[in-house]
Amino acid sequence: MKLKALHKAIAALLPLAILASCEDSTSPIGGSLVNGEVSITVDTLEMKLDASSIMEPEFDSRTQTKLLGRINVPEYGSLECSFVSQLMCATKMNIPDSITVNDIDSIRMVLTVPRGSLTGDSLAPQQLKVYRLTRQLPSDINSAFDPDGYYDPSSPLGVRSYTLSALSMNDSLFKKQESIRIPIMLPKKMAQDVFNAYKNNPGIFQWPQTFAQYFPGVYVEQNFGNGCIGVISSMKFFTYWHYMRQVYQKKDDDSGEYHYVPTLTRDSVCLFSSQPEVLSANKVTYKVSDYLKKLANSGKAIITTPGGYYVNVKFPAQEIIDKYDKDLYSIAVVSKLSFEIPAEAVENDYGLDAAPHLLMVKSSEREAFFRDNKIPDGKTSFYAPYNTESKSYTFSGMREYILELIDSGKAVDPADMEFSLVPVVVSTEEVPGYTSTTTYVTRCAPYIGRPTVTQLDTDKAIVCFTYSRQTIE
Question: How far is CA 164 from the centre of its chain?
Fold first, then answer.
C-alpha cells in the first residue's frame, strides 16, 4: 500500500500505541483491514553536525525598535548604537483656532524606554544629541549606514544628559510607570515654524512622502557615556502652548462667594512620531571580541546580536532517508520529524542571554526570506524559541520537509540540506477553535533587540524521527 493511501488510517491510530525511543513496537491494530502488522518507530539520533560560524558585518537594520548607547563586554566585544528615522505626521493640528504663533511655547522629542529593556548599567551617565536630517534616507539603508552628509553636525536640534534608572522616581511613579521617558527640548523656532506650516500649508502634512520633503527625519547619536544600551520603543514630538482660562473658584475672603479668575493654562499635542509606516533604521557598529573569534575559528557555532555571527549547518536529511530507505517510500508513514540543538549563552558579566528565537532557513533562501517578509512555512524554513529549562532550541515541524525529499525518490540535493540559523523576533497570533487554540506566525524579522551571544552545541544535536510501517502478509 502506498504512503498517501495509508497515511490517514495509520496516523489516526498513532496515539493508541506506546512509543519507545529507538525501539520498534508491534501492534495487530488494523488487521481487519489488511493482513499483517503495524510497527511504530520513534528513533532518536544524536548527531554531530557540520557547522560553521559566518560573520555578517552588514545587515538590514530597518525596524521600529531602536537601540541607543555603548557597551564593551570582554567576552562579547564592543557595541555602539545610534539610529535615524523618518517621521509620521498628524494630518491635522488639533490646536484651538484661538491659539496664535505667539502662544506656542516649545517642542519636545520624547523617547520611551520600557523598564528593564536595557543592557549594562542603568546608572551609567549618558548624553544624546538630536540632529535634523538634510537629505532623504536611502531606501536600501542597512546597519553600516554612514550619516555623514545627511545632517549638519554643528547644529544639533537638542542635547540631553540622562540615565536609564528609575531610582529618581517617587514611590507612586516607580510602582505604576512601566517605562522611562527621556524628554529632549528642541528649539522654540522649530515649534513656531511647524505651527505656521500647519496653518499656511496644510497640504504638506497629508502624506508621509510630502512631509518627508519638508522634514526628512532625525538622527540620534550617543554623544557621551559608555556601559549601557537602551531599547527605545517609541519616539514622539509634542508641541506645547499656553492660554488664559477662566477658572471658577472661591474668593480668598470670608464672603463664601465664587468668581471667575483668569488662569494661565498649558496644553500639548503630539504632531510627529516614528511609526512602522515610515523608514527607521539602526546604525550598529559591532566589533567582535577576540574571545568569540577564537571560539568561531576553532569550529564552535556562535550566534550574536545585533549583527555579527550567524551559523550554517548541514542537516543530515540524506542520512535519515538512507537509514529508513527500505521501508519509507512504499509502505511507511512519516508522523513527525523534530530537530533539537543544545545551546546556552556564552558566560559573561553583563547578563547577555541567548537569542530568544532562531530561524532555520535554507541558506540559499536566507536573504530572500527577510527581503520578501516571509514567515516560516514548515518546508524550507522553521523557527524555535529558546527553552531556558532544557537550554535548547527545538524545531518541531519538519515533517513536510522530509516528506518532499522522500517522495522525490532521488538523492537529496546538497542545497536542500544546507541551512542557516539566524536570530529572529517572532510575532504570533492565537486563534481559538472548538477544542484547541491555533497559533499563527504573523511576522518573522531579524532580531535587533538587546545584545545576545549564543553558543550552539552542534556536536550533540538530536533528531527525533517518528514513522509507522505496515508489514503485509
Answer: 21
The residue among 345 and 260 whose pLDDT is bigger is: 345
Q: Which residues contact 312 (CB under 8 A, 6 or more apart)?
A: 51, 52, 54, 363, 418, 419, 420, 421
Give the mean pLDDT of 339-368.
94
Mean pLDDT of 281-285: 95
Nearest residue to 69 (alpha-carbon basis) of 83, 84, 90: 83
C-alpha cell recorded at residue 165:
534608572
Query: Which cell numbers in the block locate residue 250?
Result: 472661591
The Cα 252–Cα 178 span in angstroms is: 41
**21: pLDDT confidence band, cut at 50, 70 and 90?**
very low
Q: Which of 342, 418, 335 is nearest to 381 (CA)?
A: 418
Q: Give the closest residue to 423 by CA, choosing from 400, 449, 402.
A: 449
* Rounded mean pLDDT, 159-178: 69
Please report the sign of the dihedral spanned by the C-alpha atoms of residue 73, residue 76, residue 80, residue 81: negative
How many angstroms from the chain centroid is the CA of residue 152? Answer: 31
In SS3 terms, 407-430 reads as HHCCCCCHHHCEEEEEEEEEEEEE
Cell of 428: 504570533
- Around Cβ 106, how many Cβ atoms within 10 Å? 17
Q: What percent of the chain has pLDDT over 90?
A: 60
The pLDDT value given to residue 417:
95
350 pLDDT above the threshold of 80: yes
Q: How confident is the model at residue 169 (pLDDT cuts 50, 70, 90)?
A: low
Q: Which residues contact 414 (CB under 8 A, 6 or more apart)?
A: none
For residue 23, list its beta bridge partners: 42
Local confidence band at 106 (pLDDT 50, 70, 90 cut-offs):
very high
Cβ-based neighbours of 454, under 8 Å, separated by 6 or more = 302, 303, 304, 343, 344, 345, 346, 354, 355, 423
Q: Could you say which DSSP state residue 200 is in? A: H
Check if the beta carbon of residue 143 is closer than 8 Å to that of residue 183.
no
Rounded to whole angstroms, the Cα distance separating 283 from 397 reads 35
Could you tell me which residues are beta bridge partners of residue 362? Answer: 419
Identify the pLDDT of residue 23: 42
